Amino acid sequence: MLQQSSSPNWLLFILLGLLHPPLLAQGQVELGIDEYSDIGLKGPVDNPVTALDADQTKTSTTDHAKLKELQGPFASGPEVTRACLSCHNQAGDQFITNKHWTWRYRHPVTGQQLGKDYLINNFCTNARGNEGMCAQCHAGFNRTGPDYDLSNQENIDCLVCHESTGTYYKLPPTRGNKACAILFEGKPPIDWAKVAQSVRLPSRANCGSCHFYGGGGDNVKHGDLSSVLFHPPRSVDVHMSEEGENFACIICHVGEGHQWAGSRYQMIAKDEREQALPKPGMERETATCESCHGDRPHPASLRGLKLNDHIDRIACETCHIPAIARGGVATKVDWDWRTAGRLKNGEGYREEGYIQGNGEARHTYKSIKGSFQYDENFPPVYRWFDGTMYYTTIDTVFDPTKPVEINFFQGSPQDPNSRIWPFKRMHTVQPYDKGNNTLVYMHLWGADDAAFWGNYDFAKAIAYGMEELGVPYSGEYGFIDTYSWWPQNHMVAPKEQALRCGECHSKSGRLAELKGFYLPGRDRLPWLDGFGLFLIGGTLVGVGAHGLLRLFLHRRKR
Amino acid sequence: MPVRTVRIFNGFERFWHWSQALLILILAFTGFRIHGYYGGISFDRAVSVHTIAAIGLIVLWIFAIFWHLTTGTWRHYLPTTQGLWPVVRFYAWDIFRGKPHPYRKHFWRKHNPLQAASYLGLKLVLFPLIWFSGLAYLTYNFWQQGISHPALSWVATVHVATAFAILAFLIIHLYLLTTGGSFRHHVAPMLTGYDEVELTDVELAYLKQDEPHRLKD
User: Fold this and answer.
1) ipTM confidence score
2) Are β-strands A28-31 and A381-385 bridged in parallel, bridged antiparallel, or unpaired?
3) From the list A302, A501, A536, which residue is nearest B51 (CB)?
4) Which class would CATH give B3-214?
């Protein structure tokens, strides 16, 4: 039902293609590389509800526009940061331990070394070695390579999270191949003093200008984080909508000292501790639904009580996020790197092949990345999940005859700490080290002759990437199927759009794939149904025969 | 022995019978919907109606048990072999030869022996089974111990199996209304309360003396 919503777009595209054969043959062809040139705030800066600045004249004791330290002139970001840290003299120490700065995270349960500085995903694969591009979304300045000085606090980018004019922007730290020049064109200069004086707690415009564009474009990666959330209609996100609560991200992602809750690396799949600390007004730094709604959120009606009975087994998101990528912006669901590198007249190009819900075209082919498929307003995949994410990292040796799970997790109906969660499942065919059976670091960005973006040679780009980062490489690459799993937490729909019971409690419902527990309405014991129907059928035949015999003999007697 | 038209089903008994019948039909309809045999009503509506009807039936049963015990009417269901054989023979053989039903209702024996035995089985086996499995189903969250408990499938199995058996009872119950006299003849007493019953002289004297309103003429 939900999946059909994207098919009319395909139909339209095919019809258009039939009318214009060249369009069908190759879509809209554009030359050059424009990755991330369209990221950032769309529309006006939002003025959301945050903890402090609902009404700044009452809640804040400082008007930053009047501070002499912020009158400028400033010539660069680090100069502004120096001014910030001259008053906020703990902020730097706090922030340099934050993931947004380190891109490093040691998982407390699995012990795995995670973070963007190490991980390989199944989108653009690796930030490590490609910082010249990817660190456009690093919360610091001048991160051009893996040897970045994490102790240099002047490189912290306070503005990207705190400015409120909407005029601030970040560019890739290096310029890359000449084909990427388009990325740097036509940008107005930043008025550093003006943006520095505008600081406040982060709004959706701040967080969203990076997080809504993860994976190389609008909603590419997460499925539940798109530019729609800058100003979402209530039907897309009941919390963040200006027609609803107008929440900033930090209303849920709470924290202190520049550390905040809600990382996907270690999630709270089932939040029962909230009930242990229900002291009124007591603060607790978790981003779970339960941290506000408690674990008995439904009304005390017969139906509400039954719904509350589900909370220990079903994540809130499972029923309250009925579909992924709502509101008109699609997400990538399939990526094939094998087709990357095709050229037209010696140059890379792009093809549009998908019209998303808001009418905008999305690229279905890029020479620099390969072929993609999109989807929007589609049902998640449901899995038991205990909150701990494991990753296939660069040093994981895998069996190449099976698809590789980029991230994976545990959970079962017999585990009291697991619940059924909704996921976006991303499928990709991406390069791997055929000799060592590991993933690879690819060298995508650079002004050299090995960077894939500009030279389009996998062999060179992989060899360079592996050597640059000191990872053993067999010298031979292949392509392998990978999956990654993205828990869905955002785009919580209004309650009237929550899933109806029958969506799962039916034979081929949303939970049809999940086995190992009895789900009323879905599960039937074949022998029981056989017995029951035999009993009922036998009874009917018995009384029928008895009745007919009576009738027959009665007539004959007459 | 005199045969008189006597009120054998009083008001509560008739209310009990018909409201129980209605609740069982509602429970069967919503129950097999929940089991997944058909649609027509949403799963959550079916669950809500099923739960309310079940609670209603439980309350009705508590009153009915109290009534049976305090009025002594439980004695109607005492199993007996006396007169059982002619009844069995009637349904298996004599009915086809157009013979009349061998059993006449008595004042303290409203049901024929076969009927009494099957009602007793319904009340002592099938109803408790569906009750207890239903209550276990309803209170699942109090005993699941934080996991998706495997015993739920056994609870559901007992519940559904009993439901099938009760449905089979219902079919036979309805069919038997067509035997040994007219359909109307069978249904009327449960509507009006009155039926023709063989009375002993003592019973007749008692009714005339103490409960004359139960005698029609």
Assistant:
1) 0.89
2) unpaired
3) A302
4) mainly alpha
